[in-house]
Specification:
The complex is a heterodimer. By secondary structure, chain A is mainly α. Chain A is 68% helix and 0% strand. Chain A is globular, with a radius of gyration of 21 Å. By secondary structure, chain B is an alpha+beta fold. Chain B has one domain: Cytochrome-c3 Hydrogenase, chain B. The chains are: A mainly alpha, B alpha+beta. At the A-B interface, helix 7, helix 10 and helix 13 of A face helix 4, helix 5, helix 7 and helix 14 of B.
Chain lengths: 352, 374
Amino acid sequence: MLEFDGLLLNIYNSLSLWFESLGVPLIWLDLLVMVFAGAVILGVIAVSVLFLVWWERKVSAHIQDRLGPMRTGKHGVLQTLADGIKLLQKEDIVPRVADKKVYFWAPVVCFVTAYMAYIVIPFGKGLIARDLNIGIFYIVAITSFTIISLLMAGWASNNKYALLGGMRSAAQIVSYEVPLTLAVIGAVMLAGSLSMVDIVKAQGPYFWRWYWLPQILGFGIYFVAATAEANRTPFDLPEAEQELVAGFNVEYSGMKFAMFFLAEFANMFTVSAIATTLFLGGWQPPLPGLSFIPSWIWFFGKTLFLVFVIMWFRWTYPRLRVDQLMGFAWKFLLPLAFANLFLTGLGVYFFG
Amino acid sequence: MESATYGKKLREEEFLINMGPQHPSTHGVLRLVLKMEGEFIRELTPHVGYLHRSIEKIAENRTYNQFMPFTDRIDYCASMPSNLAFAVAVEKLAEMEVPERAEYLRVIMVELNRIASHLIWLGTMSLDLGAVTPFLYAFREREWILDLFEMTCGQRLTYHYIRVGGVSRDIPPEFEKSCRAFIKSFRKKVDDYEAILTENPIFLSRTKGIGILPLDLAKDLGASGPTIRGSNYEWDIRKVEPYSVYNKFDFKIPTGKNGDVWDRYMVRIEEFRQSCNIVEQALDGLPESDTIRAKMKAVFRPPAGEVFSRIEAPRGEMGYYIVSAGDKKPYRVKIRTASYNNLQCLGPISIGLKIADLVAIFGSLDVILPEVDR
């Protein structure tokens, strides 16, 4: 069927033969592949965010007994495109008292970190830009960069609300990073590898062997912490509209605002994709007999389901207060994550 | 070797935040100047007056009937009670008899408007706490009430329905059926709101024990309505000083225990149910009659004198003090609105809390700015 695994490999092999016959060093081919992969990932992000923004609006609308966007295309599918065009036309306002350089770079850093995480996500069998042997470690490292961009935005805007928002987000993301990483380690211990592809392969094509079952605690911790990492309700304090107007991005307009917006949705997709990879068997079908459906469909199906759950949270729950949020991370999630790690260690030692 | 910064403390300073007049959760044009220490509020100064329209002064240049449309604008989320407050005061001044059917219609409309007003409160308060969905649910139900009002008087926001001496027109024949259907479905909806908010642990942690308003303070500041009832004080003008035909209905006054955000929330949720009871009883007891307005002279001149009368508006006690010189226009009108006094409670109870709590407390006080400024 529509598997890209063999196809991409064949193309690569025939290209390398061709390059050899021309006498060009293979490093050029690798560079070419990198550029190509980068462009494809950019496309994937753009399309997935376009879809997710529309989907969020539709999900929220249906939860709230509304229709949502209906005018632009069938059921408003082109709404995000229209929004994007509108944002492109907007005047790019820089506050007079802002720190101009930092103000400019904050959305760029935010978007680039969101973009970089996509490199090691296995979208399907063989559909991975670069199978780093420290894949999950890389992701944990890269996503931490988001804090810097939010702090930059909060500080550079020279606005008190933005500063409060930036500070909140720094405190929040640093705190939730800890239980998140500990939850990830559980799955890594079971798989015995940090590579995303190896973790997927270690789970096998039977849904009861996926790590959500032995790591049910870790999965829960990961999912809660990931919601906080992606700044989504009930943990969306950095941009708590009712308290801080818009938080760190209050002064941003036009495309710079769109970059933050894009990054938020890209992050939401990333955390769901990682949850899928670590706990839901990645691109593998739940039963071997279902492998006639292409692997990337399984991957996107599972990821979008998790994205839907995160959206569902947002449109159901109120927001936590900032001290409650920190208390929850340090007093509840962290001990639980350690307990999970300990239990996993025992399990691996005795049954592994 | 000592570095240049050794021994110096990190610089700490309080900073001022100007919350409003344009801010998503100051519900209009309230301006709060906050002195903050990080996330904590150290000082709070409300600045009012951004919506001042000199309604009291305008009253001196309008006849009694001409002034009635202005009362709609005092609390535009609850126009019916605002109308009623003025009508009751003028009727008391002129010692006027109001036809019984009109009184029943007034009660029905005012109670429906109380539900509509509380629905706006429910929506905005949950929005302040970050829950977006209850807002749209609340406005969905409010829509039905607005349809009922539109059916009755043609207006959806500023009704000008209750007039001096009665009401402007009778209800259409299909009103009763639609109203009963609404009450029946609304009772279930209130349970839905409770399911989505009351039992939600995040909601509980944001409201329980937050913004406790002690009863003494509430009395000192002249708080009224659900705000003081939340502090465990049975104070409802409908019972204390019955006006219109409220003494004919059987209803309870819900009160809270501690006076925190949660108690004020529960009081209003319970008032939804009590208002439903009153509307149903009023529909059952609605007398058949053709007269819905007392006979008045073409030029209405109440006798000279002064009068104060008050009613229980959704946000608390709304009173009119009218001085008449026997002319067709009032000599002086002073309006006592609940929101002004309830807003005073905000400062003392939110000092030392966080900015997020301030938003929750402000939501729970249900202050509406046109009523504060008039």
